[in-house]
């Protein structure tokens, strides 16, 4: 059953990603990537060598305390925002990003209270799915620029 859910989410994600056209550039001095997309606007993404791994709640708290590029209003990205920085290659994370964790599952802010789960995305192949919020995954914080 879980395989069917993941496959369904992947197909929906690919269809949705088709609609997103994102242009990105990297600011090496600040360790951020800035992307513009018509529907999402301008987003600034964390892209540092050191990465944080934790539960979904820890991931939210981590983003709240990040002080990067002179900004303190970082948050977990939505699934759609994560899809906006993926490409159809391996790894699927836009090549403008320098850093990707060895185990590339990343938390999104999408949460389902009924199942205590949140959406995670894997940047090696663009797969996303629901996982229990007590599991530990990586974080890539974002902010509206």
From TrEMBL:
InterPro entries: Lcl_C. Residues 42-143 form the Lcl C-terminal domain. Residues 1-17 form the signal peptide. Keywords: Signal. It holds the Pfam family Lcl_C. PANTHER family: LIPOPROTEIN. This is DUF1566 domain-containing protein. It comes from Campylobacter concisus.
């Amino acid at each position: 059953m879980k395989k069917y859910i993941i496959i369904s989410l992947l197909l929906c994600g690919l269809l949705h990603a088709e609609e997103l056209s994102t242009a990105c550039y990297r600011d090496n001095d600040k360790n951020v990537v800035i992307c513009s997309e018509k529907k999402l606007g301008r987003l600034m993404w964390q892209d540092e060598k050191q990465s944080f791994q934790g539960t979904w709640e820890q991931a939210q708290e981590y983003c709240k305390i990040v002080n990067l590029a002179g900004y303190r209003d970082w948050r977990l990205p939505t699934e759609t925002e994560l899809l906006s920085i993926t490409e159809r290659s391996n790894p699927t994370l836009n090549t403008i990003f320098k850093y990707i964790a060895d185990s590339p599952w990343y938390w999104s802010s999408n949460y389902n209270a009924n199942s205590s789960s949140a959406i995670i995305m894997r940047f090696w192949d663009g797969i996303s799915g629901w996982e229990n919020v007590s599991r530990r995954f990586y974080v890539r914080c974002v902010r509206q620029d």
